[in-house]
Amino acid sequence: MAKQSSPSLIADNRKARHDFNIHETYEAGIALTG
């Protein structure tokens, strides 16, 4: 059986966070229907 886990961060650009000042972050997604 597949292991259930809570939603987590898929990707994080650590170098961008280190090199630049990030003021806001956005979370986006897509919904597939069919």
Automatic annotation (TrEMBL):
Q: Where is the signal peptide?
A: none
Write down the InterPro entries for this protein, in alphabetical order.
Answer: SmpB, SsrA-bd_prot
Q: Where are the transmembrane segments?
A: none
Record's SUPFAM superfamilies?
A: Small protein B (SmpB)
Under Gene Ontology molecular function, one entry of this record is: RNA binding
Q: What is the name attached to this protein's record?
A: SsrA-binding protein
